[in-house]
Amino acid sequence: MKRLSKLVLLSALGALTLIGCNPAGKKSDKGGALSSSAAEKVYVAPGEHDEFYAFVSGGFSGQLAVYGLPSGRLFKVIPVFSQDAEKAWGYNEETKPMLNTSYGFVPWDDSHHPDISQTAGELDGRYVFINANNTPRIAKIDLTTFETTEIIEVPNSAGNHSSSFVTENTEYVVAGTRFSVPVPQRDMPISEYKGNFKGALSFISVNPEDGGMDVKFQLLMPGFNYDLSHPGRGKSHGWFFFTTYNTEEASTLLEVNASQNDKDFIAAVNWKKIEEYVNNGGGKMMPANYAHNVYDEHTHTATSTMKKEVLVVDPSEVPGAVYLLPTPKSPHGCDVDPSGEYIVGNGKLSANLTVHSFTKMLDAIENKKFDGDAYGIPILNFDSVLAGTVEQPGLGPLHTEFDGKGNAYTTFFISSEVVKWKLGTWDVVDRKSTYYSVGHLMIPGGNSQKPFGKYVLAMNKITKDRYLPTGPEVTQSAQLYDITGEKMELLLDFPTVGEPHYAAGIPADIIKPNSKKIFKLEENKHKYAALSEADTKVVRNGKEVHVYMTMIRSHFSPDNIEGIKVGDKVYFHITNLEQDYDVPHGVSMIGANTSELLIMPGQTESFVWEPKQPGVWPFYCTDFCSALHQEMQGYVRVSPANSNIELSWSLGE
Amino acid sequence: MLFVFSLVACGGGEKKEKESFAIKKAKTETTKVEKKENSSVPASKKVDLESKGVGPITSITLNAKIDKAMAAKGEETFKKMCTACHRIGKKFIGPAPDGIMERRTPEWVMNMILNPTEMVQKDALAKELLMEFNGSPMSNQNLSEEEARAVVEYFRTL
Q1: Domains of chain A: residue spans and CATH
Q2: Tens digits of per-residue pLDDT, A127-139?
Q3: Which tens digits make up the pLDDT trace of B31-40?
Q4: B136/A557 CB distance under 8 A
């Protein structure tokens, strides 16, 4: 105790000295008091846990990575629209169907916007949703297992960019098309785009019980580019807002031709009204072809079903459901503040930020303050819906998030900075540089009624000289700022896997207690599971051989197999019999052409092996599981195709 | 002469391999014997009807009569969760469970099932067993106390 108080005294003295050294309180980026306090703020001691989870999309890696904040430590890379040799995801027989699409097997994509499920406008930590841009898909990641458990393809869509954002009670996860296309797809001249192409905004319902996704309806909008979107919340719950660009409907040289109009639009969609319309039989069922892939936690197996129709809605047939809010210069981000009153349109070619008022929008609708229409959709008068303008805050505004204390934070791509400004007064409060060319930013819960305004994470597009160089391709990076004070403070740079396109953050305490430790053997319903030693066997069916194998520290059962022949297709189905936390086993087979497996306790996974020459071929555990890990191995004898060797298997004989 | 020589050489080669293997084996056995002399009885043969081990189970009363229904349940659990490493009447990855109830208290057995990680760290007998069985750890198969109790009942029938 005495010692402790001495320490306290000493550090107090130390602090005094430091303050003494820096009397003007001048903040320097290098050395001194500030950097030591920045280090303390991001330091999470060995064995301690971070305060927040950050789910950071991998952009063109098609993945979603899980980091801790404030430390920036990487915990897991979740394969979503990608194959992952580490976990065999997309390689093993169980998960291959997850990557099925109407175009066949597409094991890569461009994953952009993760969003965490909400209940009553607050993060509930059940799921993360994320979009695939290229082959339009929406995936759901279950936050008890941190695995992708459902992927639904989005028909009539192309460049699935204004996705995947959830409504206040996760009634819907919404997916909007960036590219308008012919609907249905058909052979036609590109030059006839204008007036003929459509932009589909898809409302995918999420079953409140099991999270199951289904395309409830698609709104077929005019042929603009639908760039980003966000739900209304609180008072504006029931509405959804989408930024548009290329309202010129150009099909070529968009960098010039889509920048002609002084204003594009934010489309405001009253989805409750459309939901009511379709629930009463409205809309038209049209033929379609899209994959719905579901991973079952109990069979440990995914199935892919092709769906053959989709309900489409023509907005002109639901009067009062859709309005267009003029917004200057190709708005990109479309962000709604925690109260649901302000809709921020970040006109990426505009010098100013435009903020619309939901209250004024309702008033303008009621009093028909229209400035014409686009394909029958009323265009509201700009001045009648405008709440305010943030004057010249920076160059190239992209995205805005909120701290729940009346402040908004907007990224500026061209001027590489985050700018903090006040809702209502529209005054700029602070600005901090990013390194470099920031895209999205994220405040945990920053897209909900209840943000946790402690940190903002800026995700950069360029890192150049910030890290040790690694050839022409350098690391991607995110930066963490403390936003608890009046001024923001840069705390940390950390490298990310793939482009950190966007992220969703949540207090760890919401998720941590629900994280599964093992899969229960008694709940394992895998078709080929061997749930105990007694179930192990090898079954031949023509040239197809199924091995029902188990693994436990530190052996496989069976570990000697004979009677396999060249030309056989051998399916290894391996069940990890462990029922203890963090005892996965791996398996790899010499000459197997896909990948190794990494199998969690209680789980069954399968790989295929097609032996090409006679011999005795070893397999072994690839995950260091115990002191006897190096002993965890086995042999398969492969005989010539015409051999009479009987199928046999054993362990310890 | 040459021919004979080469034959002998070939045969000798094969024989040598076998021999060297046999020698190695013999060596291991010798050390084992020596150890035995030093440390008397292996842990799997030791009898300790006092120690309750380390874990959640502090006191179990066994009825004089075996509860057959419970033993049947225990057998089912044993077959599902334990046979990967334990076989009746045979030393396998771990020791055979036959006669365990004559060597250990029911509390010790249940704690070994329910709390193996701590047992091999803190319980002297469990530590010795881990060494005797080549460092192969007893897996925690997450049985409930009720299931572990039933397994004990089943062990009483062996």
Answers
A1: 52-514 (2.130.10.10), 526-650 (2.60.40.420)
A2: 999 999 999 999 9
A3: 444 444 445 7
A4: no
